[in-house]
Amino acid sequence: MIRIKGFYFNGRSSKSYPAILEYDGTEIRIQSDEGPILLNGSDLAVSMDIIPELGNTGRAILFSDGSRFETPDPEGVTLLEKTLGLNKFARIVGFFENQWKMVLACFVGLAGVTLGFISFGIPFIAKDIAFRLPQTVIQKISREAENILDQRFFEPSRLDDKIKNDIRQVFDSMVKDMNSNQAFSLVFKKSRFPVANAFALPSGMIIVTDMLIESLEDIREIEGIFIHETAHVIHRHGIRSVIQNTGVVLLVSLLVGDLASITSFSATIPTLLLESGYSRKFETEADEAVGNYFLSKNQSLKFYEDILIRITKDHPGLKGTEFISTHPETQRRIDHLRKLVL
Amino acid sequence: MELSTEQNSSSDLERYPIKFAGEAGEYFRIWIVNMFLTVVTLGIYGAWAKIRTRRYFYAHTIIDGHPFDYLADPVSILKGHLIVGMVFVSFALSENFLTPTYKLIVMVLFYLVLPFLIYKSICFYTHNSSYRNIRFHFDGSLWESYQLFLLLPVLIPITLGLYFPYWSYLKKRWFFENSAFGTTYNKFTGKAKPFYRMYGLVFLQVLLMVTVIFLLAFISAALAGLSFRNPSQSPGNHFYEGFILVAGLYILMICGFSLIQQYLFVRMTNYCWQESRIGDVTIKSRLKVQQLFWISLSNIAAIVFSIGLLIPWAKIRRARYVLSCMTVETNVSLDDFTSNHAADVTAIGDAATDFFDFDIGL
User: Fold this and answer.
1) What is the rounded CA–CA span in Å between residue A49 and residue A63?
2) Please, which residues bridge with residue B119 across strands?
3) Burial letters B265-298, b for 16+ CB under 10 A, else e
4) In chain B, where does DSSP find H-type helix?
5) What is the model's pTM?
6) Nearest CB to B303; choose among A100, A113, A263
7) Long-range contacts of B110-115 (CB under 8 A, 24+ apart)
8) Quick check: helix, strand or coil at residue A32?
């Protein structure tokens, strides 16, 4: 016989009647000033809802007629739950929550799964989607990106035709050499801000800024840059980047999602960290393509190193800020390349 | 002192301080298991987790020995989550993949749907809140929601912001005067003028903060400019020094905004409860800006430095303070409220979103 002392609410008013709930194995009887309430054995699972345990609170049972039984005695209700075989899943969850060892296991599991998503899950899915995207979509995205870049950052190039032709010759012969299914094109632009850089759009269009060409001391320096940028295209880094970043935002909002605004500012920090992490990985992949190319041609990396150092000279990276930067530190890039080639 | 017209009720005012029995350690365990199960199920358990969280806070909020309860059905919340998730993904991808016209269409659609979501959210959240087995409910209409959240906001830019405090007053009034505990409606006697006073002060605070930040930025830029003239330092280093400076000012700005946010919350909450009356029950709210600001700031710091692990502690701490400042006062018995079965039946039960957090009040 299970006996629980508590309060009964009849579902019509807020009045609480001191009550005693008894279960004798077949029926539930609630005795109070409201008169005895009887629930039959066969109906029990259907006509009542034992609210699962929730920390150190009292318990409550809801009945299908809208009435409610509350009690500060959790043990009696737990016993009732077990005897009737109710709330199995909730009881398992409750078991996890009540033991610090289990909580620790959950924490480790949580960290593991989250890291797994970040290191493998998200990049894997992004790669899969990126390589399934049809060319029409890729062309469209690239056109949109080019429009935005032209609007905000670029003007027509002011380089000499001779220089442009020379560079183009190098480019064309490299592309021919690559013998890839991917179509590439080369475009020269002047950037509104003084930037010596090259960009690759998913469609295969490589953009180089005037300042980059002007900073070349040997025409062979541009080769490594072309390999690096075409690698971005071949491996679809641009698209994978966008998908991965969306995934990161989803993951972070899953984790902090049910919380108030005090935490939303702190959520941008992990998002930023993760996104720049992914970016650095892609940059390294592109650098590796450069290393492999020169290795296969038995040529020196020197020209690529020279131009890398020259164009990143103005922002070498203050020690310690690499974790939020989109490119690895220049010296690290060079060291990594040298290790590949050795 | 109220003079009661009822013959039988006592003229003694009973005070029931609101007790919060939640504990950080206990909630932390629930929170970790929630997170673990949510991530492992790719977010599906999130609906159950959300209900469990809200239920935890409700069940530990106790008046006169009886707790609150949250009775939501997890499946409704799950449906809501799936819809919101899909909308988010399509919006995020449209950011990068679609033309500006598409983006515009998505944004317009979002604003058209928002009042509907807010309305459903309030109805769902109030209907599923109960105390002593009597459900609360919200009696506002969908049309009122559209007026409030789609039409009237247009007036804000038109009046260069002068309409904003009045709009804020209308929102609070809509929520407070349409809320009911069973058959007993809340009477809201608030006026717009106090809102203007509150926002006026907030505006001054914002001006002060922006001025201070600008001055600091100006001074540090001037100092940096002096060191720039030093030829032995390459320009590259200054890019990163500048970055650290900007980060510092950003943090300062966050603190400033937090203070202003807490100030507004304290004043509005205290005022709205002061002007509310549920039958013969009033709720006294005595929040203090200083204390809440301190709690808020230290919570943010704790969360950032613990990489989020102290989030449960922060939530409990804030809830404990806010509820400790509230007292239920009445000269009638809390036993005398009746439930509103008609409203219970017509309440929405399908897909639901739950946008609101505990700070909105009981």
Assistant:
1) 6
2) none
3) bbbbbbbbbbbbbbbbbbbebebebeebbebbbe
4) 24-40, 46-59, 74-97, 100-127, 142-146, 155-158, 164-177, 193-228, 235-274, 289-305, 311-324, 341-346
5) 0.79
6) A263
7) B111/B150, B112/B150, B114/B149, B114/B150, B115/B142, B115/B145, B115/B146, B115/B148, B115/B149, B115/B150
8) strand
Amino acid at residue number B227: S
Q: Residue A179 and residue A169: Cα distance in Å, rounded?
A: 16
Instruction: List beta partners, residue B129.
Output: B70
Whether B44 has a pLDDT exceeding 80, the answer reads: yes
pLDDT digits (tens, 9 = 90+) for B305-333: 887 889 899 999 999 999 999 999 998 88
Closest C-alpha among B337, B323, B338 to residue B16: B323
Those residues of chain A that have pLDDT short of 50 are 258-263
Considering only CB atoms, A11 lies closest to which of B32, B133, B258, namely: B133
- Name the pairing type of β-strands A154-156 and B184-188: unpaired
CB contact under 8 Å between B308 and A313, yes or no, is no
B240 contacts in A (CB within 8 Å)?
A: 315, 317-318, 321
CA dist A181 → A51, A202, A210, A227, B285 (Å):
62, 14, 28, 15, 71
What are the tens digits of pLDDT across the range B157-209? Answer: 999 889 999 999 999 999 999 999 988 999 999 999 999 999 999 999 999 99
Q: Where are the beta strands (DSSP E) in chain A?
A: 2-9, 17-23, 28-32, 37-39, 48-50, 59-63, 68-71, 154-156, 185-191, 198-200, 205-209
pLDDT, residue A314, reads 65
CA neighbor of B360 nearest in space, from B172, B194, B113: B172
As a whole number, the mean pLDDT across chain B is 83
Residue matched to tokens 């690895």: A328
Q: Identify whether the C-beta of residue B258 lies closer than 8 Å to the C-beta of residue B235.
A: no
- Cα–Cα distance, B202 to B74 (Å, whole number): 39
The reply to whether residue A16 touches residue B335, judged by beta carbons under 8 angstroms, is yes
Q: Residues B212-228: pLDDT tens digits?
A: 888 888 887 777 666 65
Helix and strand numbers, DSSP H then E, in chain A: 13, 11
Cβ of A16 within 8 Å of Cβ of B33? The answer is no
ipTM for this prediction? 0.77
pLDDT of residue B360: 31
Given the structure tokens 């984790």, which residue do they identify?
A255
C-beta atoms of A259 and B311 within 8 A: yes
User: At A142, is the secondary structure helix, strand, or coil?
Assistant: helix
Closest to A307 measured CA to CA, from A225, A229, A240: A225
Residue with tokens 């590439």: A184
**Nearest-CA neighbor of A301 among A265, A260, A268, A333?**
A333
